[in-house]
Automatic annotation (TrEMBL):
It comes from Psychroflexus aurantiacus. It comes from the Bacteria. This is DUF2911 domain-containing protein. Pfam families: DUF2911. Residues 20-42 have a biased composition (Basic and acidic residues). Residues 20-45 are annotated as: Disordered.
Length: 193
């Protein structure tokens, strides 16, 4: 009788251990798949920012950086003559804690949604809008624009895979905000006032 009870205990313990191992493996597999999907989503359009201090002005650009991924971007993924949130997901925003002069016009200290209208024929339209916290261009309203300027894109032989913003100092109180993606680049010269 003791032998039968011992055999039953061993069988139950063995079955229980096998089930726990199977559950652990299943759980680990599901976790690995979820991490992999999350990592893939993160690398497609990573969230990033660019900051600089020029003549005491702290300038900050916050954006999601989509990749080219063998696609035609301007005139393909992004239609000409249509508004674009100048990044992926949420609208790109630019913040300055001092007034800036851009193309002879003032941009007051503040936080702004940054939008672009690419054009195949003409200079591109660059827009600073008071509604900075929005998904894409879903809630864009032209009446909330505080500044619109024009800029000619320049073409490069090399590919910029991910949308990139840089802020470069060009003088004691001057700088350039540059947006580069695919083989095009836009420059926004500014002066701290």
């Amino acid at each position: 009788m003791k032998k039968i009870a011992l055999v039953i205990c061993i069988v139950l313990i063995s079955t229980s251990c096998k089930q726990e191992t199977k559950n652990d493996q299943s759980s680990n597999h599901e976790h690995e798949v979820k991490v992999s999907e999350t990592e893939t989503k993160k690398t497609l359009s990573p969230h990033t920012s660019e900051m600089a201090v020029i003549d005491g002005a702290h300038i900050h650009i916050d954006y999601s950086s989509p990749g080219v991924r063998n696609r035609m971007i301007f005139g393909g993924l992004l239609a000409y003559d249509e508004i674009w949130q100048a990044g992926a997901h949420k609208a790109t925003w630019i913040e300055t804690d001092k007034d800036l002069e851009i193309q002879g016009r003032d941009l007051e200290a503040g936080k702004y949604g940054f939008f672009v209208i690419p054009s195949q024929e003409d200079a591109w339209t660059l827009i600073f809008n008071t509604h900075w916290d929005q998904h894409g261009k879903d809630e864009y309203n032209k009446d909330q624009d505080v500044l619109r300027v024009k800029a000619e894109p320049s073409e490069s032989d090399s590919l910029t895979e991910h949308l990139t913003y840089t802020i470069e100092q060009t003088g004691d109180d001057t700088g350039i905000i540059r947006m580069s993606w695919e083989k095009l680049s836009i420059q926004i010269p500014f002066k701290v006032i």
